[in-house]
Amino acid sequence: MTEDTELSVRLYEKGYLIKFVPAAVTYEQEPETLGVWVRQRTRWVRGHNYVLGKFLTRVPRFRSRLTAFELLSVLCLHYMFLVGIVASDALFVLSLFSLAQPSLTGPFAAVWALAFLLFVLELVLIASLEDESLTSVVALAVLMYFTYCQGWLYVVVRGFTEDVILRRERVWHKTPRFETTGT
């Protein structure tokens, strides 16, 4: 994934555009264990950290300001997601248990509910393009918010810690693959 990101940034830097092909289909094997998933996703975060660090000062000089802005937002996506999930979690807990009385009054529980609904609706939209069952997608989206999204918190913090705080050497571990049948 990082190689694709760096290659894309280099192409944009040279002034080329990359066409989005929504009908393209690719398949990937998901990790079989939580440990392998964490290692793979941490590698992705650290790879994006690398590309962000490499191109951060060069992106503002790109020919297209819009492309530069899009690239910066994509390269910072893990951290925008982290801030969004942490804010959502904090808002949920504070609203649920009335642990804090913010000076700004407002329907914070409703705001959290609407943000959660937006998350679910995004997945429903994607599933509608894939001809998936609406019921299973909504159930999966609810489950994903409380599991998969929270797992990303750990992964992003781990990647940031390894790169920025501990300054660990990048070692690219290959994700173990498993044999499939009937494909």
Looking at this protein, list some descriptive labels:
183 residues, mainly alpha
Largest sheet: none
* SSE sequence, one letter per element: HHHHHHH
Mean pLDDT, all residues: 83
Task: Return Rg in Å.
Answer: 19 Å
Integer tally of domains:
1
Question: Low-confidence segments, ≥5 residues, pLDDT <50?
Answer: none
The share of residues in helices is 55-70%
Percent strand equals: under 5%
Number of helices: 7
Question: Structural class, from secondary structure content?
Answer: mainly alpha
Total strands: the figure is: 0
Assign an overall shape: globular
Termini gap:
24 Å
Characterise this structure.
By secondary structure, the protein is an all-alpha fold. The protein has one domain (2-23, 30-165). Helices cover 65% and strands 0% of the residues. The chain contains seven helices and no strands. Helix 1 (2-13) packs parallel to helix 2, helix 4 (77-97) packs across helix 5 (108-129) and helix 4 crosses helix 7 (148-165). The longest helix is centred in the N-terminal third of the chain and has 22 residues, at 34-55. It is globular.
List the helices and strands and how they pair.
Elements: H1 2-13, H2 34-55, H3 65-75, H4 77-97, H5 108-129, H6 134-146, H7 148-165
Helix pairs in contact: 1-2, 2-7, 4-5, 4-7, 5-6
Please provide a brief summary of the model.
The chain has 183 residues and is mostly helical. It has 7 helices and no strands.
